[in-house]
C-alpha cells in the first residue's frame, strides 16, 4: 500500500490500512557503516537508544509555513499515529507499508538517511515505488510501556510483550543508529513497517 503526495500541500492525510503479512522473507549481509534491513546488527545488550520523539502528534514549530508541511498517518490495526514533516515544493513525499524484511540498504549521507540500494527480489523491489536516493523522513516503530521492563540503552522493552505501542518516528535530526533501532523495534512477524520518504520531482 502506497500513498504519494505532490506539489505544495495544505495538510494532507493518508490512512494506511493494516496489511496481511507477506510470506517471502529475504536476508542480506550487513556492510560496515551501511544498514541492510532484515539483519540483526545490534545485539539486545547493545541496542541503541530510541526515545519517543517530542514532535510525535504535535504541531511543528514551523507549521505556519503550511505550504511546506505534510502530515501523514499510519495505522496498524486500531492504532493510528501521525508524523508531520516539511517538504520542499520541488520534492514529492510518499509513504509505503512493507512486510519485513524490507529489502533496502540505508546509508547516512550529508545529514540525511537515504536509500542506498533496493535489494533484488526484496519486498521494496516488489513494491516498485522505492528508488535509490530517496530520503527517509519517518518510519513506524514500537515502544513498550509498563510491565516488567528492562532498559536497553534508554529504549525500554517489556519482557512480557513483543509488540508495544506504534509510533511514527521522525527521522530528521535523529542519529542513524536511532533510526535503525526504530526499524528493528518492529518485532511482530505479521506487522508491516510504514516508511515516509521523499524525492525530487
TrEMBL record:
<protein>
    <recommendedName>
        <fullName>PDZ domain-containing protein</fullName>
    </recommendedName>
</protein>
<feature type="domain" description="PDZ">
    <location>
        <begin position="80"/>
        <end position="146"/>
    </location>
</feature>
<dbReference type="Pfam" id="PF00595">
    <property type="entry name" value="PDZ"/>
</dbReference>
<dbReference type="InterPro" id="IPR036034">
    <property type="entry name" value="PDZ_sf"/>
</dbReference>
<dbReference type="InterPro" id="IPR001478">
    <property type="entry name" value="PDZ"/>
</dbReference>
